Amino acid sequence: MSNSAVRVSPLFLGLVGLTVLGGVLATLENNAARVGGVVLIVLGGWATSLCLHEFGHAITAFRGGDWSVRAKGYLTLDPRHYTDPVLSIVLPLIFVALGGIPLPGGAVWINHHALRSRRTESMVSLAGPLMNLVLGLLISAAVALVPMPTGLAAGLSYLAFLQVIAFVLNILPIPGLDGYGAIEPWLSVPAQRFGEKARPWAPLVLFLLLIGVPFVGQAFFGLAYFVFDLVGGDTLHTYLGQSMFRSIFGFL
Question: What distance in Å separates the CA atoms of residue 87 and residue 93, rounded to the nearest whole number?
C-alpha cells in the first residue's frame, strides 16, 4: 500500500481536538465545566469513532483489492465522505445524546467484485466493528492504568462502553449490519437474495425490538456488559459518565 493512500482530513483532526478539549474540561474542579467536558468527550469521541469504523472497512478493502475506495475519499477519515452527513453522523449522535443505543453511522460502498476472496469480503465487514472493540479496549486500559480525575475517567469510561455497544450491535448476523456482511459471501444464492431484500428494514425491526421488548433489550445490554467486562471496562465510572452526560440534556 502506498504511504500516500491515507490522507487525514482536517475535519477529522478537528473532531479529535474537540474530544481532547473535552478531556481537559473534564479535569477541572468546576462542576459545569466538568459536565461539559464529559459531553464533548462523548460526542466528539463518538463522531471520531464513526470515522475510524468506516476507515477500518475502507482500508481493509483497499488492501484486499478495491482501490476505488481511495478515489471515493474513504481513506481520508473525512466524515463527509461516509454517505449522508445527517444520517451518518448527526442522527447517530442524536441517539447517543438521548442516551439510547448508538446506531450504525456511516457506510462505505465497496466494490466486492474487486476483492480477492470471500475471506477478504468477510474481513472487510468485520474491520469496522473490530475497530470499535479495539477502541473500547484501549480507552478502558487507559482508565485502568493511568491515574486521572474522576470526571475524565467517567467520560472516557462511558465512551468506551459506547464502543462496546457499537461492536456488539454491528456484529449481529442481521442483514444491514456488519455481522451479516461477514457471513453473506458464504451463504447460498437464495439466502443472499433474501438478505438483500431484508437489508433495508431488518435493522429497524431490531431497533424496535431492543426498545420495545424488555427481554430483548435486557439480553442485548447483558451481552454488552459482559464484553465490557472482558475488555476491562469500569462499570462504576461508566454509570457516572452516563449520568453526567445525560444531565445536560435534562433526562435525569
Answer: 10
Query: DSSP letter at 90?
Result: I
The domain limits of the chain are 10-247
Residue 75 has a pLDDT of 95
Q: What percent of the chain has pLDDT over 90?
A: 74
Cell numbers for 203, please give them: 435493522
Q: Which of 45-54, 66-75, 103-112 has the lowest mean pLDDT?
A: 103-112
Angle at alpha carbon of residue 3, lines to 117 and 17, rounded to 5° = 105
Residue with the three cell numbers 466494490? 111
Q: In whole angstroms, what is the distance from residue 87 CA to residue 75 CA?
A: 20
Radius of gyration of the chain (CA): 18
Other C-beta atoms closer than 10 Å to the C-beta of 226 total 11
Question: Residue 210: which pLDDT band, with cuts at 50, 70 and 90?
Answer: confident
Closest C-alpha to 166, from 246, 83, 45, 53: 53
Cell 454491528 maps to which residue? 170
Q: Is the pLDDT of residue 89 over 70?
A: no
- Residue 28 DSSP SS3: coil
C-alpha 22/C-alpha 40 separation (Å) is 5
DSSP H helices in the chain: 10-26, 31-63, 68-71, 85, 91-97, 118-145, 150-170, 178-183, 189-198, 202-212, 214-230, 235-247
Q: Is 196 a catalytic residue?
A: no
Q: At what angle do helices 214-230 and 235-247 cross, to 10 degrees?
A: 120
Pick the residue with more confidence: 203 or 96? 203
Angle formed at CA 103 by CA 98 and CA 104, multiple of 5 degrees: 150
